[in-house]
Specification:
mainly alpha, Arc Repressor Mutant, subunit A, 3% strand, disordered N terminus
Length: 216
């Protein structure tokens, strides 16, 4: 929660910078809902403003245009889903334990209903608006693979893994974690797997990966 500024009458209000951050956050939340419900092309900036509050002038000042707003939506979702992985802390774990942590976080993204909705949005819009595809691939897909590839390279340097191309290996691991759940969620199915089943699925992917890349 952003800090508040005390007023003389014992009420509180957010300082200008904090108010701006709160307003930006509300617009991104509203835009996520409208983009998912209406699609990118059909989404109305007026509807987003009506849902978030504020004005069109503020939206344009903060995001530039609809494309800039979509960029912010994907960036926010990527930060929420991928930013929780502390790769520095994972250096103190074995590759098996570290990959289990990474795998569980990524798998939670695979079966997230909101992520599935964004994927459906992109499938419908990417041909008409290739820039949206580029935004998603850069901020979400390639970012997650690159982060994992960088971690794998540290393990290669420590001689715990034997990998020739860490980016390809990271792609293999992410692909194994998607399984058939990815397409099921993209088709609108709500996947409610118990935690123990999620762990079992991820562990199998980790074991398969290490079976091919662990140094012997």
């Amino acid at each position: 929660m952003p800090p508040k500024t005390p007023l003389a009458n014992n009420t509180t209000e957010y300082a200008p910078r904090e108010r701006g951050l709160i307003r930006r956050d509300k617009i991104i939340q509203a835009a996520t809902r409208v983009f998912v419900q209406s699609g990118f092309e059909s989404a109305s900036l007026q509807d987003i403003v009506a849902l978030a509050g504020g004005s069109l002038a503020t939206l344009y000042r903060l995001f530039g245009n609809k494309e800039g707003l979509f960029y912010a939506v994907i960036e926010r979702k990527s930060d929420q889903l991928l930013g929780e992985i502390d790769y520095g802390d994972l250096q103190h774990k074995t590759p098996k334990d570290a990959l289990q942590v990474i795998g569980m976080r990524f798998f939670s993204m695979v079966i997230s209903p909101e992520v599935g909705a964004i994927h459906r949005l992109l499938i419908g819009e990417a041909v008409r608006t290739p820039k949206l595809r580029e935004i998603f691939l850069t901020l979400a897909t390639e970012r997650s693979i690159r982060n994992l590839a960088d971690y794998l390279q540290t393990q290669v340097d420590k001689q715990t893994l034997d990998i020739q191309d860490c980016f390809i290996a990271a792609s293999h691991f992410m692909g194994a974690l998607k399984g058939n759940y990815h397409i099921r969620c993209m088709l609108g199915e709500v996947v409610n797997l118990p935690l123990e089943e999620q762990e079992k699925f991820v562990t199998a992917a980790v074991d398969m990966f290490l079976g091919g890349y662990a140094r012997r």
